[in-house]
Protein: Putative mRNA 3-end processing factor
Amino acid sequence: MASILQTTDRGLYCPVGDFYVDPRVPVNRAVVTHAHTDHARWGCRHYLAAQRSEHLLRMRMNDDAEFEFLPYGESISVGGVDISFHPAGHMLGSAQVRLEHRGEVAVVTGDYKLGSDPTCESWEPVPCHLLVTESTFGLPVYRWEPEQVTADAINAWWRESRDAGLCCVLYGYAVGKSQRLLAGLDPSIGTIYTHGAVEKGNEAYRKTDVELPETTFVGSLDRKHDFTGGMVVAVPSANGTPWLRRFGRISTAMASGWMAVRGARRRRAVDRGFVVSDHVDWPSLLKAVELCDPETVWVTHGYSAAVARYLQEIGREACVIDSRTRSENDEDHSQQTIEGEES
Structure:
């Protein structure tokens, strides 16, 4: 399998096709799994990605970059390596990259999750010989509730806060997480407002025909506007800043997979914590490996040693690789500045 994919100091490299998958640094040719910045590095000369990610990638890449986009399931040959993209379920346009050369198949999952999400295509299993999987939440403690259960809990909090004369502020990362949260909100409860970074992400989603409820950009309103009873979807970096003063009396909440851990809400200094993650939880990770049924599993980012050890114990050939540079303590730490988004 080393002939298809190798680990290098620049990231995962395909020597036969002379391209990188989610490179760490700018390279000549990059095949990218999705538009978050730890996967789609700024400064590459040529990008190949799934068609559904086009608006997000063009929104944040340099103007002189060359782009090529493929619909899910279609393939292109690069240096004798057949490349195709398959839904990853992480966010709009996210994809697993399938590489095939001389009958050997490698799949790079990027970031992914199983289950439903109204803002993107659902993950699908891709049989392979080598599977590269993330392990952001690769411990048994991480188990997600069904999508609708969490959405109902968020809407219940909003109703309670509205009835108490408060404005809700819900924190989620600007691109991907925020749009997923918006899709689950009930507009009949009140007006939905957005931070500038979130609204810019909304524009790309709407251009890709993803249905989102009507939103109002906070910056478009008069400073004396009354936000009572409303819902503000904002980026985590806004928490604790003077920007919050304009909303009056507020109730705050964080939406993150880390909210599953006791003490995480307290460290974030918010009133509520909702467990919402765009990454696989423990049972979903194991299910994905089972369904793809690879001969070898490379585990990266997060609790990679624990996951690799468990897979070995159940009879899988697995090892840890270092393909990322981002912090293991921040979910989607990579979603860097888009009109104020934290890096």
Summary: Confidence is low (pLDDT under 50) at residues 325-343. The two ends are 34 Å apart (CA to CA). The chain has seven helices and 19 strands. Residues 147-163 form the longest helix (17 residues).
